[in-house]
């Protein structure tokens, strides 16, 4: 009972995370921290009473090395008085501990193919809810938000405060959902039966969960377009195109309909759905983008001087909020509490060495996921790995111009997705349990 309760609590938490303003307010991320700490306590009790597995599988340890590097840096900054804003560093340390324990729980309790599928379903449900909520609000300008009473925004933001955070979240869900659909595709044994397999797959799709997931993806794409996030949309479709080409070349025993699925996604979702839901506004924003009018590049430029001041130890986790005003060269049109470039902000707060270690571990996980696509026999492992790789590539592109990982919902969702990529690297003989 403990085992199932903890696992399904993890799934519920995944769905809950984006609802309270993207868990990007102290009271909201405090809820997620409390839930994680309670679940980990139950996990410890379960281990002591019933001698169940306590530690995650060794092949999932790269994610703990990644988060652990941040934990060690934050602890050293506090222990040796290196942080210029110790209160914010303490808050970030507590949040990062909850990230570490959350990844621990995901990796311990997602111990079968069936549970990997359920985690993916939880992600799709969470993304679909956000997409429907955001679309209804955006297409109803006179409707006030039922949650938290937020005012109407021209760009869809769902239950998030910032539309780019919603775009980042939806893109991650889209990526993992597409990978899951790919895992359901059939492999034709020879070229002479393609027509027969094609017709059979169409009939099966009309009667299977693939149709429901595909329709869900269309709704999520609509919401992604309605955010009118320039880099969110560009980064997602660029990462999907890159990983699609990689899969067509290196995917192990790729389904013959893989290329048609990827092509249909671009053709149907971008052209048809985009036309219906006014993608021209997004196109206009892209065309009218000007570095003269944009101040993000100036924020990054002014932020670089902060790296020069403390390149090794960093200024302390969470310190950018109060530190940036000391290096700001001129007043901007708005207040910037983040660098709008996660690479720069991580380097400022954690130092160059810790940031480099984290980036190397991120690339290492990415290559593990790519290897899964080219080596694994399981269609589920290969398909989910495709989604994880697309999501990771998207995130690495998007954080060049924004700060999505500062939202707890996005950060924890990204951790779940990386955990799935590492879990798909497990021994297939040990992961066929149905519960």
Describe the structure.
The protein has 17 helices and no strands. By secondary structure, it is an all-alpha fold.
The level of helicity is 55-70%
Principal-axes geometry comes out as globular
> Could you spell the SSE succession in H and E letters?
HHHHHHHHHHHHHHHHH
Oligomer type: single chain
- Provide the residue-averaged pLDDT: 86
Number of distinct beta strands: 0
Summarize the structure.
It is globular and about 70 Å long.
Itemize the secondary structure elements and their pairings.
Layout (H helix, E strand, L loop, with lengths): L1 H15 L9 H25 L10 H19 L6 H24 L3 H26 L24 H21 L10 H13 L2 H18 L3 H21 L7 H19 L3 H8 L8 H14 L10 H4 L18 H9 L1 H24 L3 H20 L9 H16 L12
Name some characteristics of this structure.
435 residues; mainly alpha; 17 helices
């Amino acid at each position: 009972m403990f085992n199932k309760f903890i696992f399904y609590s993890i799934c519920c938490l995944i769905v809950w995370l984006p609802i309270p303003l993207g868990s990007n307010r102290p009271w909201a991320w405090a809820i997620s921290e409390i839930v994680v700490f309670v679940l980990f306590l139950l996990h410890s009790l379960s281990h002591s009473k019933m001698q169940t597995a306590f530690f995650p599988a060794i092949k999932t340890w790269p994610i703990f090395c990644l988060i652990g590097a941040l934990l060690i840096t934050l602890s050293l900054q506090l222990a040796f008085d290196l942080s210029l804003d110790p209160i914010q560093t303490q808050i970030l340390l507590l949040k990062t501990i909850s990230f570490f324990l959350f990844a621990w729980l995901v990796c311990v309790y997602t111990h079968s193919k069936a549970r990997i599928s359920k985690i993916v379903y939880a992600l799709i449900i969470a993304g679909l809810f956000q997409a429907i909520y955001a679309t209804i609000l955006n297409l109803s300008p006179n409707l006030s938000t039922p949650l938290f009473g937020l005012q109407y925004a021209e760009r869809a933001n769902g239950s998030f405060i910032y539309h780019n955070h919603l775009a980042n979240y939806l893109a991650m869900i889209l990526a993992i959902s597409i990978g899951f659909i790919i895992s359901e595709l059939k492999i034709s044994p020879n070229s002479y039966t393609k027509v027969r397999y094609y017709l059979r797959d169409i009939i099966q799709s009309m009667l299977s969960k693939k149709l429901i997931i595909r329709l869900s993806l269309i709704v999520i794409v609509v919401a992604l377009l309605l955010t009118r996030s320039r880099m969110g949309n560009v980064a997602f479709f660029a990462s999907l195109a890159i990983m699609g080409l990689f899969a067509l070349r290196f995917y192990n025993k790729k389904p013959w309909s893989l290329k048609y699925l990827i092509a249909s996604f671009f053709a149907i979702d971008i052209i048809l759905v985009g036309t219906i839901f006014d993608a021209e506004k997004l196109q206009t924003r892209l065309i009218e983008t000007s570095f003269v009018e944009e101040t993000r590049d100036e924020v990054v430029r002014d932020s670089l001087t902060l790296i020069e001041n403390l390149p090794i130890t960093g200024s302390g986790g969470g310190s950018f909020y109060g530190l940036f005003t000391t290096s700001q060269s001129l007043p901007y049109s708005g207040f910037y509490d983040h660098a709008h470039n996660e690479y720069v902000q991580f380097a400022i707060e954690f130092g160059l060495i810790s940031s480099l270690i984290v980036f190397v571990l991120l690339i290492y996980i990415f290559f593990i996921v790519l290897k899964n696509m080219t080596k694994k026999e399981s269609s589920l492992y290969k398909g989910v790995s495709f989604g994880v790789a697309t999501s990771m590539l998207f995130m690495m592109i998007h954080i060049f111009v924004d700060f999505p990982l500062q939202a707890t919902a996005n950060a924890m969702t990204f951790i779940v997705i990386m955990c799935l990529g590492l879990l798909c690297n497990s021994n297939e003989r040990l992961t066929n349990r149905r519960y």
